[in-house]
Amino acid sequence: MKSNKLFIKILFFAVVVFLCPGWLFAETVYIKKNKTKITEESSPKSNVVAVLDRGVTLRIIDKKGKFYFVKLPDGNKGWVFKFKVANVKPVKENKGGDLFAALAGERSLEADEASTGASIRGLSKISENYAKEKRIKPVHIQAVKNMEKFKVTSERLDNFMKSGKLGEYSEME
Amino acid sequence: MKWNKGKITLMSMAIKILRKNFLLFLAISVFWFILPALVPSSAAFNFGDLLKELEVPEKQQTQSKKKSEQKKPPQKEEAGGLLGLGKALGLDKNTTNIIDKSARALQSLRPIQYKEEAALGGAIATQVFSRFGGSYNDQSLLKYVNLIGNSIAMFSDRSNIPYHFAILNNSQPNAFAAPGGYIFVTIGLLKKIKNEAELAGVLGHEIAHISQKHTLKTLQRSKRLQGISELTMAAMDKDPKMFSDIIDNISKTLFEKGLDKNLEYEADKIGTEYAFRVGYNPSGLNDFLKTLNKIQGSQESIFFKTHPSPRDRINKLSRNVLPNYRGTSAYPKLSSRFEFETRGKL
Prior knowledge:
A: SH3 type barrels, 7 strands, B: 346 residues, 62% helix
């Protein structure tokens, strides 16, 4: 009898938890890259609902293959390729989320700025000086600079994925 | 009838429990409803990342102690925060020194930041070109490697830094990853590759070394660099010898000793996952390792000295990694695209 009561108690708790609203367990994810498209259907060919920047918070409502049906911060809903979002809010590289650096007065530039523009462009002075001191030929120093200059546009990358049926264009489930 | 009786008993007991524990249920319900408002991203908590943040390089605390005892000119760039606070508050010399020492110790605890990582990587990159035949200048081949590499980097766990890819004019099959996103493959390696999925597996492996900061972790654990407590741009600018020592240390690891074999296995596992995320057949890296296994002994390459044997890597992948990708045999390997893109260029 006593064990029956305990069982019913546990069952009751389980029912209470089960009845909790679904959104309570909704997974939160974050956009990994700028210009990520949210589409109307779970296909990159469908209409674009929104184009989001890195770090935007989304709530997963449903999952289908490699796509998530998500709720946007403005209340709109749409589909996103699951590998374009992360479970952890993207950390700004140079701050590294560390309190220590802030306490020690460290002020440095962020990697995002590095990739998009002005802050860290090309081979740093200290790296170049090192190479010169080690008598590395100028052609090899230039090779590093060329390597850094080589850019692939997001449109070209998108076309590459599309033609290879890769990423969100994949036909595999 | 019996069932009805049981049902009634069950319901009446449930009501009894609800009555008895009404306040408790009410509290639980309120808690559940309030929780998301209090912690909006509670579901996104990742203990692994917390550990990453808290990771303290071995012996670094003692290093900073030693270093702070050495006489060192104050660095203007780091004069904010706690540094100089004692002086600003007009405290006595001893207290000021204690505050400054603490600030430097705190600074030494933080991970190497991207700016410094890119400086180290840039210097290593010049070494790579210098030691391995320089750049292989075929722009369309380079574009192809960059497209595959950037596709993988985009779906990696560290997609917020720029990645740079280059082809080395060296006939030995090899690939390198330098901190900060510099990745190299030799023309000798490209000649052994059979399809795009294999190349994606190799590039995924190299990107995993960078996303997991394998070289930096190895550097931070290096006993030879115990005396270095501050790996900041300011400190490296002021002390080119220190910068040079660090590059020599990384060079020795990458070009002579190799990384710890467990880091290589980890890069195999994560690299396979990255290639899979893009949509490639996850067997790519494993297939390429089989090719390397066949040529080991017949072909000279420092690759075989700096990596665990292809046989061991294949065993680990087959046993621990590939079983996670069952049902993916139909995923594309893109052999014909690889052939088309590389024809007459290798």
